[in-house]
């Protein structure tokens, strides 16, 4: 049996007293918020100091958790009948970034559970087309989905739960809703949720004018009533139940499984904006009817659609306007896709195109180029004019403050990235190379601090420049880095020898071809992802992020540009 507490489900709004503990002080919160005729109850618990846009109220609300330093988080996972596409990836990556921000930056442990819908009309249809069992189709594409998420560096939830492994719990949950007077069974073997039984509590995400029921279903009390259980058709998978052989409806799966893990109180529920109605609306109705509570999920976070640029339609399999994650990763890296997601707010629609991906690639390249130049300066390989060290320390402190404020304000990653890019620009302005080496004062510590911070904040977002580069190197050859080191060193020796005889007219015929050969080698290595930079008589090298085979020379030129 699912454990739950019984509370009043009357139309009246109950008053909760909540407390915030701050440096030993305790103070009560306000208790309710009116929203389009509905009531949202500010949760009792611990104020995180963050705000987030809540789809239940359609405005920003203070993020208050039931337990100090712990957030319970449920998300709707995939229906596993085909490959995942970029529209799915955008939502999962965006919420992965939010969870990383909560845990890495604000010290909140996120307990994330996700459902895998492994029985559905689409899965059954695909199994007939492939002439294999629905379970084989589901397991195959479930594993495919998990591999795609791993490729995109999406952290797995604490637990994946399959619908087919929770059928008994789903039946028990439906029985509880019937017992509480909010669902009914028909002689045909259907079980429907009774919308009228909860009155005006239905419609938390949309107005009543937008709500429509199924057309042509005659055995309902109200056209808006939705299925909790439906009888199986011939040759379909089925489970025995008190109402006959059948399988669960779509919405009841999430209510049951989320309640199985988190009980009658959930901090955060996430999903794409298209799931708000009817899926999340029906989840809320079912869960509150079962638990007999006034508010089951406190915060609903919805991500915006991914559109192909120039199209108003979301990326969708049904519209056949999608790009699979595997195909995408042939041209771009996981880090570049994360940067693409970071440059817009998680709840905004986002346009996908080659130009928008190149913007993300260029932004990432600007950062990596600055880091490499700063490291060269720290090593003494890059000679610069005296830098304004005090200004850079002030810029670094200001950036840290701006990033924290932006992310505490509804996870505003575009504003946070804008602050980071401005810091990079300030650093680039100070890294002005000079051709002659002198004994001017140097300021390596401030650049070391800037590099450390930029890496740290990108790592919070899941953009891991260090391990991302090492993974690519190791995947190609364990010895590649050593080979490049030796090659770059040999080229540097040849180039230095040629430059040392610059004023010797007797060796001009030999010197010019050697320098030309050095330049040719540098240019030929660039499309392979190896960038060699000549800094006067000294040369440095780096292996770049991304898919080298897809890069053109112009791509590499853009990566070398500093912020302007």
TrEMBL record:
Its EC number is 6.1.1.16. It is found in: Mitochondrion. It catalyses: S-disulfanyl-L-cysteine + tRNA(Cys) + ATP = (S)-disulfanyl-L-cysteinyl-tRNA(Cys) + AMP + diphosphate; 2 L-cysteine = S-sulfanyl-L-cysteine + L-alanine; S-sulfanyl-L-cysteine + L-cysteine = S-disulfanyl-L-cysteine + L-alanine; S-sulfanyl-L-cysteine + tRNA(Cys) + ATP = (S)-sulfanyl-L-cysteinyl-tRNA(Cys) + AMP + diphosphate. Its cofactor is Zn(2+). Residues 69-361 form the tRNA synthetases class I catalytic domain. Belongs to the class-I aminoacyl-tRNA synthetase family. InterPro entries: Cys-tRNA-ligase, Cys-tRNA-synt_Ia_DALR, Cys-tRNA/MSH_ligase, Rossmann-like_a/b/a_fold, tRNA-synt_1_cat_dom, tRNAsynth_Ia_anticodon-bd. One of its GO terms (molecular function) is cysteine-tRNA ligase activity. Residues 403-465 form the Cysteinyl-tRNA synthetase class Ia DALR domain. This is Probable cysteine--tRNA ligase, mitochondrial. One of its GO terms (cellular component) is mitochondrion. One of its GO terms (biological process) is gonadotrophin-releasing hormone neuronal migration to the hypothalamus. CDD domains: CysRS_core. It comes from Cynoglossus semilaevis. Its main location: mitochondrion. Keywords: Aminoacyl-tRNA synthetase, ATP-binding, Ligase, Metal-binding, Mitochondrion, Nucleotide-binding, Protein biosynthesis, Zinc. Residues 545-564 are annotated as: Disordered.
């Amino acid at each position: 049996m699912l454990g739950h507490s019984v509370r009043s489900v009357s139309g009246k709004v109950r008053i909760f007293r909540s407390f915030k503990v701050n440096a030993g002080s305790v103070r009560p919160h306000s208790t309710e918020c009116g929203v389009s005729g509905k009531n949202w109850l500010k949760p009792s618990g611990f104020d995180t100091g963050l705000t987030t846009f809540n789809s239940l109220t359609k405005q920003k609300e203070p993020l208050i958790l039931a337990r100090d330093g712990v957030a319970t988080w449920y998300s709707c996972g995939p229906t596993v009948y085909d490959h995942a596409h970029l529209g799915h990836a955008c939502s999962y990556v965006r919420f992965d970034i939010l969870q990383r921000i909560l845990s890495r930056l604000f010290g909140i442990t996120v307990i994330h559970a996700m459902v895998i819908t492994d029985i559905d009309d689409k899965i059954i249809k695909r199994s007939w087309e492939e002439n294999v069992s629905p379970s084989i189709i589901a397991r195959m594409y479930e594993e495919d989905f998990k591999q795609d998420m791993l490729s995109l560096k999406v952290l797995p939830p604490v637990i994946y739960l399959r619908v087919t492994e929770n059928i008994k719990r789903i039946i028990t949950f439906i029985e509880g809703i019937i017992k509480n007077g909010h669902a009914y069974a028909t002689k045909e073997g259907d079980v429907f949720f009774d919308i009228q039984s909860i009155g005006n509590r239905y419609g938390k995400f949309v107005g009543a004018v937008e709500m429509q029921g199924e057309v042509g279903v005659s055995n309902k009390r109200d056209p808006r009533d939705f299925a909790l259980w439906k009888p199986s058709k011939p040759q379909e998978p089925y489970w025995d139940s008190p109402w006959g052989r059948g399988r669960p409806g779509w919405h009841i799966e999430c209510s049951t499984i989320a309640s199985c893990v988190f009980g009658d109180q959930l901090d955060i529920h996430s999903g794409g904006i298209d799931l708000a109605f009817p899926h999340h609306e029906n989840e809320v109705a079912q869960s509150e009817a079962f638990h007999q509570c006034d508010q089951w999920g406190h915060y609903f976070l919805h991500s915006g659609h991914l559109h192909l640029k120039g199209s108003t339609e979301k990326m969708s399999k049904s519209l056949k306007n999608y790009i699979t994650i595997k195909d995408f990763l042939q041209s771009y890296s996981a880090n570049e896709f994360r940067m693409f997601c970071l440059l817009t707010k998680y709840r905004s629609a986002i346009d996908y195109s080659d130009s928008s991906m190149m913007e993300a690639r260029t932004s990432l390249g600007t950062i990596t180029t600055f880091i490499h130049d700063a490291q060269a300066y720290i090593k003494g390989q890059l000679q610069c004019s005296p830098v304004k060290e005090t200004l850079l320390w002030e810029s670094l402190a200001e950036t840290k403050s701006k990033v924290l404020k932006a992310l505490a304000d509804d996870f505003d990653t575009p504003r946070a990235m804008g602050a980071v890019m401005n810091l990079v620009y300030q650093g680039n302005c100070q890294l002005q190379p000079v051709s002659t080496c002198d004994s001017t004062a140097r300021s390596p510590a401030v650049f070391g601090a800037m590099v450390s911070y930029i890496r740290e904040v990108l790592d919070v977002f899941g953009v891991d420049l260090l391990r991302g580069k090492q993974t690519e190197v190791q995947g190609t050859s364990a010895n590649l880095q050593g080979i490049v080191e030796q090659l770059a060193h040999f080229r540097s020796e040849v180039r230095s020898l040629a430059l040392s005889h610059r004023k010797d007219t007797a060796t001009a015929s030999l010197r010019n071809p050697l320098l030309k050969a050095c330049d040719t080698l540098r240019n030929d290595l660039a499309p392979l992802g190896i960038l060699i930079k000549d800094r006067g008589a000294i040369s440095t090298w780096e292996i770049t992020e991304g898919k080298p085979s897809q890069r053109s020379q112009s791509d590499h030129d853009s990566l070398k540009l500093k912020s302007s």
